[in-house]
Amino acid sequence: MTVPLASAHAAAPTPPGPGLALGSASASGLATAGESTPAAALGTRLVHAGRDPAKYHGFVNTPLFRASTVLSPTVGDLLGRTQPYVYGRRGTPTSEALEQAVCELEGGAGAVLCPSGLSACTLALLSCLSPGDHLLVTDAVYGPVRHACEGVLRRLGVEVSYFPPGIGAGLVHWLRPNTRALYLESPGSLSMEVQDVPALAAIAHQHGVTVLADSSWATPLFFQAHARGVDLSIQAGTKYLSGHADGMLGTVSASAAAWPALKSLHGDLGLCVGADDIFLALRGLRTLQVRLHQHERGALVVARWLQQQPEVARVLHPALPRSPGHELWLRDFTGSSGLFTVVLKPVPFAAVEAFLNGLRLFGLGYSWGGFESLALPLDASQGRLPQLCEPGCHCVRLHIGLEDPGDLMADLREGLDRMASVDMDSLL
């Protein structure tokens, strides 16, 4: 079963990005932007970015280098660091291939890899903050990032404030003389609220504030963060970039102004990613476009169907007209992905458990972005959900995988029937 995508999103032009640049290896082991060549379509860049078969005897994929020590031919070469690679932690051809590809797709001046999405978030924050600084964070932020702000950053002497994601021009009233960074996440975790990234970034830049954004939900395919004013664009590569629920990875792409500090701190902290996870991300990258479009199509079918079910109070999905920030999504995004939140009408939690426990095609688990569908019960008191839900409602986050939407809807309908059949009187 398929459904036409929103006409505004289908017709939206692809934001400008860098031209396709192949085989421009960086001697530092970290990607930097090279000279542009005539721009290629995004799907073409996904297939070719970071690859140079001529360097590896014609083999299509960059080989997997598991490495720590790199030998030098002479003492002069060793001490002078004359070789492209000097130590496994500082980069290999495998890590460099992914860094170059991420830099190409994001349109940044440089990109680094991190062991997880959360480590990418914290690295980006630490690269632009010092003791005594003030950080502004969207109140719709990913829970573990909020935890890091409340723990690590406050312990380091950084002040943190959380602003409503729909604040728009009102952000200026939240700025302080010591505000140094603005952290966005659009759409926001759980509540799926879309923020006016270009407007918020413009205000921030007028006051010398660095702009960070986690846009893992859309990826660079559907949202070009740097083109919208973001200085540090963060991706949880564990999700759609890897795409198969078997790799852990984070990426940070930086503007020219933010790149030196990011690159330096990344090296100082000794951050690196295992070669196998990098290789899996490179493999996933090549099919990202076709997978993401399939996630989008399936999710829209299921989300629209759920809106019609009597047990559902609301569906929070940026591509749906009644979802918060939908007009901003139409303006700034060129597509949507497979993750959204379902608000159920008030029932006891035992009824929600009955709904979820019997699902056949939806796994119960954390993360998202893989080929499989997932369901996760949410605490309706978390983050921004209380502002969007009626009292007594329970929320479920769904990730729509690559299964047939008809089968997924049948599975969900059976679950909703189980939920409705729970003996309410016995639960009182």
From TrEMBL:
Q: Does the keyword S-adenosyl-L-methionine apply?
A: no
Region of interest (Disordered), residue spans: 1-25
Give the keywords, sorted.
Answer: Lyase, Pyridoxal phosphate
Reactions performed catalytically: L,L-cystathionine + H2O = L-homocysteine + pyruvate + NH4(+)
Give the enzyme's main class according to its UniProt record, as a single word: lyase
Query: Per the record, where are the segments of Low complexity compositional bias?
Result: 1-12
Q: What is its EC number?
A: 4.4.1.13
InterPro entries attached to this UniProt entry: Cys/Met-Metab_PyrdxlP-dep_enz, Cys_b_lyase_bac, PyrdxlP-dep_Trfase, PyrdxlP-dep_Trfase_major, PyrdxlP-dep_Trfase_small
Q: Which cofactor does it need?
A: pyridoxal 5'-phosphate
Give GO terms: molecular function aspect only.
cysteine-S-conjugate beta-lyase activity
NCBIfam families attached to this UniProt entry: cysta_beta_ly_B
As for family, the record states: Belongs to the trans-sulfuration enzymes family.
Its recorded name reads: Cystathionine beta-lyase
Q: Which organism is it from?
A: Roseateles subflavus
Classification of source organism: Bacteria, Pseudomonadati, Pseudomonadota, Betaproteobacteria, Burkholderiales
Q: Which gene encodes it?
A: metC
